[in-house]
Amino acid sequence: MSATEDELPQGLPDRLPVLPLRDTVTYPDTLTPLAVGQERSIQLVNDVLAGDRMLVMLGSKDPDLDTPGPDQLHRIGVAGVVARMLKVPDGSLRILVQAGQRVQIDEWEGEEPYLVAKVSELPDEVEEGPELTALMRNVQQTFTRIIDEVPYLPEELQMAVANVEEPSSLAHLIAGALRIKVEEKQALLEEVDVGKRLRMLSETLARELDIVAIGSKIQNQVMSEMESSQREYVLRQQLKAIQEELGEKDPAEAEIDDLREQLSALELPEDVRKQADRELSRLEKLPQAAAEHGVIRTYLEWIASLPWGKRTEDNLDLAHARLVLDEDHYDIAKVKERILEFLAVRKLKPDATGSSIMCFVGPPGVGKTSLGKSIARAMGRTFERISAGGVRDEAEIRGHRRTYIGAMPGTIIRALRDAGAANPLFMIDEIDKMGADYRGDPASAMLEVLDPEQNATFRDHYLDVPFDLSGVLFITTANTLDTIPGPLRDRMEIIQLSGYTEEEKLQIAKRYLVPRQIERSGLKKSQVSFSDTGLKAIISEYTREAGVRGLEREIASVCRKVALSVAEGTHAKKVAVSGPKVRELLGRPRFQPEMKRRTREPGVATGLAWTPVGGDVLFVEATAMPGKGRLTITGQLGDVMKESAQAAMSYVRGHADALPDGWFGEHDVHIHVPAGAIPKDGPSAGITMATALMSLVSGRAVRDDVAMTGELTLTGQVLPIGGLKEKALAAQRAGVKRVLAPSRNEPDAEDFPDALRENLEFVWVSEIGDVFDAALVRGMLASKT
């Protein structure tokens, strides 16, 4: 159905039906196609067509509402006449509305069966002048530029805009053609001042022009990249054809063929072979410019670089192994015996698997890492050292998955590649220094690596195929066992490496340290020599350690000073490094005996302590002052050590028979362990504290050649302690002649070197009374009344 211009009603009725619009704004003097689907809107259109065909089109504030009420509609819209109507098979209508004048809602008259309102015309306000003309021209020019760039605007619209002379019609035509927000369209409709409306439209067009320019730039870049890719593809095809004519191979194909040859030459397990063939097939189909091409190529290169099935032959000659171990390390007979046992089992049963993991535990500088190198040399295996100290990321052990950029295998697989054999010796250094954080727990990842029953199918995250680690001989090192998790410690055979005696240090220095430092300093044996007295002076007066690392530094310092004098020509003859010469070169001795000075007064006892870097000597001091029986404990002590002090105090209070009644109630007692900046803890200072207290209250000084260790109970029994060998070595370094130790630790003395047993007198005590008898000087030296 259509209506001619003569049939359109003249004038605006006061009362008109209202058709809500969703996501649409209609402007005056435009033709607007609409789809009508709501029942009330269909009835409205039918009733309008039966009458004067006029209605009011209002925009909805909320486009999600199906049947908005008066409050959900804007107050300003456009009156129009239904020019055509078409029924669609689904029951909805398609109408074409000829928009007329802008109207505003004065009053709502009804909502059923559809919205009806009183309306009044809202005419434009036009202020003629050059500004309005300039705005029109600016809008026309900007819109013309947008038409040239935007494909959804037809070119005929450019001619139509150029021929519009009336400013209001120009604004309506352009606003209706633009794809801008509904809110902006509604604001343009509601603005009655034509000048302001054109200014608003000019700002909107300027913004749209910027967006169009950015879109065009992006499109040009995309097209340029596409053209470049197509050009590169054509050139590559031409290069390929030329190479075929010349009989040459494409570099990418040659690379793939090289990988295929490397993989075919390996003895890969069946599942690994399938994975490699699958990835190689993918690589052949991918263009070289594809991002995944490099990822797959790197993966296959890693597969090809690993020692699948490659093994070195073990040297199982026990005499040769014993000779190598003795050449590189002095003493440590227990460790050497364990290595020879391992080789003997391999010699009798070559196919033996599941050998235990050895963990060397001891203070720094005793030769744990160098011992691993000696074992590898004795067995004829390749040696790889892996530092676990400070590792906090689980991916350091297992690797990263290939989905990550820059992914690579873990340290185990990398070490295998570097070793070039599937049965190397891996030295995992400082396993007690591994940490854990939000990235994972590397100690837990080590569980599979160090378990002989599981590591035959170790799976790295990057490779994602099993690799047999059962042929690898793992040796770990640690300074202390406390920080190693229990499950990991359970998988290892603990071998303790204690500190060295002075005699052992002397032999190590003569055999290994001195020749090495003379060579490193550029000297010759004819230019410098070290006497035993000189080396003993360095050991006792300039070092105080369990190992020999500090000793080697001091020897290196002496060699450097001799090298300086030789280089300057001040020494023409051989320099003999004796005791006085050491003091001349190194200066004042750093360590001097202080036992006699520290224990002259009653109330001071010498104890022995264990630390991760070896044994140490500590002094326990006790003093009394007038007070009310309070006990003060200082020296940065842990809870266990404080409890030991309280137990010692309780025992002494209960057994100090020589004191007058009420002495403890009239005196405060202060126990102090010097070196307060160093945290100290443990129960083994119990008898030392009790001896210091008994010395204080009895006035009997503690012998200056005695040191002690042992845990004390309230009943006076002495319980066993750990680390006795390290403590005994510390006592020897401090010049102690007699060591008091729990009787239940007496079997530990079997592992002590002969020199240690000869130089120290061990007194085995089971009760605190035995300690007092052996440690306190006879007779009353002072009165404690």
From TrEMBL:
UniProt superkingdom: Bacteria
Binding positions for ATP per the UniProt entry: 362-369
Induction notes from the record: By heat shock.
Domain Lon N-terminal: 16-209
InterPro entries in the record: AAA+_ATPase, ATPase_AAA_core, Lon_bac, Lon_bac/euk-typ, Lon_lid, Lon_proteolytic, Lon_Prtase, Lon_prtase_N
Catalysed reactions, as listed in the record: Hydrolysis of proteins in presence of ATP
GO biological process terms, semicolon-separated: cellular response to heat; protein quality control for misfolded or incompletely synthesized proteins
Active site: 684, 727
GO molecular function: ATP binding; ATP hydrolysis activity; ATP-dependent peptidase activity; sequence-specific DNA binding; serine-type endopeptidase activity
Protein name: Lon protease
